[in-house]
Structures are given as C-alpha cells and as structure tokens.
C-alpha cells in the first residue's frame, strides 16, 4: 500500500512541477489512473489514497473490477477501442468514454445509455498523426463528430483524446500535442463547452501538460509494469 501511495504522490508532484513551469494551476490537470491488467486491490489502495478516476481498456475485466469495488466512489473511464457489440455494456457501466471516433458509435451510446443514469461523458479520440495502426477519427472529421456528440441525448461532450506518435528515440511529437490543443480551442471557439483535453502518459506527461493537456493517463508510473 505504501508503495502505491508513494507512486501516486510522485506522479502528483510531477504534475505540479510542470504546471508551475508552464504557469498553470495544478488543479487544471486531472489524473486518470490507467488500471488495465492491474488488480482490484491495487485500485482500492489508490482510492484510499485519494485517487478517484480510473481508466480501463477491456470491458469484461473492467466490469469484474467494478463489481468488486462497488462500495467505492470511483469514476470509471473506458479508454480502449470500442467495438459496436460492446457499446451497450459500456453505456451501462461507465461514466466516461474517451475512445469514440465514429458517428455510429456515438449514436449507439446515445440510444443505449440508461435513462436512470446521468449523461455519458464523451471524449472524441483523434488520430492526430494519421497512423494506420491507431484508432481515432481523422482530423478533418472531428468538427462534424463534435457537433453531433453535442446534440445527441444521453451524452455530454467533454473534449478530445489523443495518443500522438512517438519517434524512434521514444519522444512524443510536440507538434502533434500543439495541434491537438489548436483543434480543441477551435471547437471551443465554435461555441462547444469543452473542458477536457486528454493527452499525455507516463513517458510524455511533461510535454503534454506544457502543450495544454487537462487530463493525463498514467499507468506504469502508478502501478508498475503490467503482468
């Protein structure tokens, strides 16, 4: 338990440090703990230490953890590729979906979100570098998808998510991070009330926050290597 709390404190300190250098309020950047392939007991430990937002990639694994942790106040984010046959369960079990990249997916989540639940928070995933191996909407489709997401019942459009390309040296393309911020601000200028730009992971937390990220998705630096 102490080890996990120490890692959480270290990540929070990294966020605070880069925010100070970028002249940003540390409260403007939220931490999403990416808990895929990690145990429910580890999640429970981090919740006890004050972490509330957790991201999962695999539906069945996530639902099992949700059942084991139903006594805790956790905000669950689905961040993995979303197949059409999984949208109903995702709409029923999650608070956020950060990996929406198609009109069909938006419409299914909208129609399948139970009326007894609050609107499902949506981030549109953008394939900012047009990498064929990655999910995400092409840049030219983002504005149309955003307008649709903003209109559909049962959904609340919160912002954008991206996984920018990484160079052979392991460095994230800072131009891609800046471009994501520009797209985000252009949507806000069009009148969409967005508050979430989800980009940055363990290896590129600092440049992502410097570029304007409001949510970083951290797995390895919190939980250690996945089994």
Describe this structure in words.
By secondary structure, the protein is an alpha/beta fold. The chain has one domain (2-222): Alanine racemase (TIM Barrel), CATH 3.20.20.10. Helix content is 41%, strand content 18%. It is built from 9 helices and 8 strands. The chain has an 8-stranded parallel β-sheet with strand order 7-6-5-4-3-2-1-8. Helix 4 crosses helix 5 (103-112). It is globular and about 45 Å long. The mean pLDDT is 95.
Task: Write a brief structural summary.
The chain has 227 residues and is of the alpha/beta class. Helices cover 41% and strands 18% of the residues. It has nine helices and eight strands.
Protein topology:
Blueprint (H helix, E strand, L loop, with lengths): L1 H20 L8 E5 L5 H9 L4 E4 L2 H10 L6 E4 L8 H7 L2 E5 L2 H10 L7 E7 L15 H10 L3 E8 L11 H16 L6 E3 L6 H7 L3 E4 L1 H4 L4
Parallel strand pairs: 1-2, 1-8, 2-3, 3-4, 4-5, 5-6, 6-7
Distance separating the two termini? 18 Å
- CATH topology-level fold name: TIM Barrel
Query: How many structural domains are formed by the residues?
Result: 1
Give unreliable regions as ranges: none
Q: Regarding quaternary structure, how should these chains be classified?
A: single chain
Cα radius of gyration in angstroms: 17 Å
Strand order of the largest sheet: 7-6-5-4-3-2-1-8
Provide the succession of SSEs: HEHEHEHEHEHEHEHEH
Assign the CATH class.
Alpha Beta
Gross morphology: globular
The CATH architecture assignment turns out to be Alpha-Beta Barrel
- Overall number of strands: 8
The helix content is: 40-55%
Structural class: alpha/beta
| Secondary structure tally, helices | 9
The residue-averaged pLDDT reads 95
